[in-house]
Amino acid sequence: MSTELLFRDDAYLRSCAAVVVAAGERGFETDRTVFYPAGGGQPGDSGALVRADGTSLRIVDTRKGEAPDGVVHVVEEGAALPAPGERVTLELDWERRYAHMRIHTCLHVLSCVVVAPVTGGNIAADRGRLDFDIDMSLLDAARIEDELNALIGRAIGTETVWITDDEMAARPELVKTMSVKPPRGAGRVRLLRIEGIDLQPCGGTHVRNIGEIGRVKVLRIRNEGRRNRRVEIGFA
Questions:
Q1: Which of 37, 77, 95, 131 could form a disulfide with 64 if both were Cys (CB 3.0 to 4.6 A apart)?
Q2: What is the largest CA-CA distance in the chain?
Q3: pLDDT tens digit string along 167-222?
Q4: 3-class SS at 184?
Q5: pLDDT for 95-125, tens place per residue?
Q6: Distance between CA atoms of 39 and 64, rounded to whole angstroms?
């Protein structure tokens, strides 16, 4: 069953009421959620399920389900799962999610400082990285850090926009990532726009204004193979 993905419209929602629709193995699905399932280099959210009697169940991970937009909330091993039909409240580990939002948005900005095809990426709560198909000699840590912080300091708002599959097919230059292609077949594709800086397909969660990222630093740059030059950034 598909899940209503509340984070798509408002990544700042920290909790929501929901109804359990399925449960099995170590996970359960609900009719709606604020939890982001792991994908596109962004980790799945963690948090808690709160029952009507006030007791809670720890959610340790969130993953994509089998159905389109399906979301499975994974609980601790050995925990008793909620029953289908049960009305619950889902509460995010907000500090962790917000850190992911800041890092994820920062990687969008990084992709505009290092102008090269992106071959991979990953997000954590304190750092993130992008891999580029670029000559190592073109990557200068001090320059990247200065330009990245200069753009962040402009404090420009972000915006989610949608285009049709046909519009996406007509604008292949919007796709920067070589390893992850935007999903097709649903009729439309979700983009993140940072006016004057970036516009590219992305299904993740982001901050409303890039100024929220704060200052960052280049942690390291290293060679990860013939076509991978890794730039890792973290909060300053």
A1: 37
A2: 60
A3: 888 888 888 776 566 665 568 889 999 999 999 999 999 999 999 999 999 999 99
A4: coil
A5: 999 999 999 999 999 999 999 999 999 999 9
A6: 8
Last residue of a domain, one of 92, 112, 134: 92
Shared domain for 44 and 159, answered yes or no, is: no
Sign of CA dihedral 202, 205, 207, 213: negative
Domain end position, chosen among 57, 92, 127: 92
Same domain, 53 and 152: no
Map 140-194 to HEC letters: CHHHHHHHHHHHHCCCCEEEEEEEEHHHHHHCHHHCCECCCCCCCCCCEEEEEEE
Distance separating alpha carbons of residues 141 and 102, to the nearest angstrom: 20
Beta-carbon contacts of residue 195 (< 8 Å; ≥ 6 apart): 156, 157, 159
**Segment (H or E) for 107:** helix 94-113
Residue range of the domain that includes 223: 97-235
CA-to-CA distance for 56 and 52, rounded, in angstroms?
9
Shared domain for 22 and 128, answered yes or no, is no
Q: What is the pTM of this model?
A: 0.94
